[in-house]
Amino acid sequence: MTENEDILVSVRNGVGILTLNRPKAINSLNDVMVAGIAQALDAWEHDDSVTTVLLTGAGERGLCAGGDVVALYHSARQGGAAARKFWWDEYLLNAHIGRYPKPYVSLMDGIVMGGGVGVGAHGNVRVVTEKTKMGMPEVGIGFIPDVGGTYLLSRAPGRLGLHAALTGAPFTGADAIAMGFADHYVPHDRLADFAEAVVTDGHDDALRSYAEEPPASDLAAQRDWIDACYAGDTVADILTDLRGHDDPAARAAADLIATRSPIALAVTLTAVRRAAHLHSLEEVLVQEFRVSVASVKSHDFVEGIRAQLVDKDRNPQWSPAALELCDDAAVDAYFASADPDLTFS
């Protein structure tokens, strides 16, 4: 199995260790990393000497800040072929993680955004800390939550998932557990010892020794206004309800949503609601692949990345510029066949 500077692959005491190794980029995923994880998981699945997989990220800032969206930006400007291939491979990997037959322990410490959720939150042993800063911030760059994110968002209690999807705001490790994005809470300063214990003692013993009761979830405590305000048929209805609510947090959510790409918001609302009626992670990933392939051809995807990460003027000029200009036909077009659609062999 080949190693390279972006993904480190090793086996210790029957534990296959995957280390995302781009700390300067907060371990943002590229093609090489996706391929490396996929190759390792394929090999280990059929290797009886490997009993457990452990996913971690190099550096102090987080597991993974997402996909390398600047590379996707350049692909979009050249027709989108490279972006399409990246998403195809990435979503196949997300599905494989979701059905992996061995314990897959993901250490979701620090920043875990977008693609980081895809490689971490579909595992079957998902660990967070008090430093976890998780989120699906795609609407801020004119994109729509992907990597199986809409599967998780659509299954969060009440309408917490819609709140996270439409604001794009990060949430805590405790929130992640409450929302179904994680399972276990280990304090940050004990995480290295926990990881070592996974290798030496097995993940069950490690959890018994190091996992603690998580703090209360702030988001779960706000279910009353979130469930009420995100019930509207359209994003415009949701904004009206948020702005009319007494809770200052509701009005703050409205202000944040109002900065996001209107078409991305409209598509995200539809995507999350449709995902709730799909039966498997694979079915949701097929839908997300369609939406992502459509997004790469959109104005807002290129413009959002330009404003946030290329020119960094933080002043995207969205088109359409307002929610009322995003008609049903424009939204529905995002869900048309990607021709060919994502398939699972």
Structure characterization notes:
The chain is α/β, with parallel strands linked by helices and 345 residues long. It has one domain: 2-enoyl-CoA Hydratase, Chain A, domain 1, CATH 3.90.226.10. 48% of the residues lie in helices and 11% in strands. The chain has helices at 31-45, 69-77, 81-98, 115-120, 149-154, 160-167, 173-179, 191-201, 203-210, 218-221, 223-229, 235-243, 248-257, 262-275, 281-295, 299-310, 328-333, and strands at 7-12, 15-20, 52-57, 104-108, 111-113, 125-128, 133-135, 171-172, 184-185. Strand 1 and strand 2 form a beta hairpin. It is globular and about 60 Å long. It starts with 6 loop residues before the first strand and ends in a 12-residue tail after the last helix. The mean pLDDT is 97. One of its GO terms (molecular function) is 3-hydroxyisobutyryl-CoA hydrolase activity. It is an enzyme of class 3 (hydrolase).
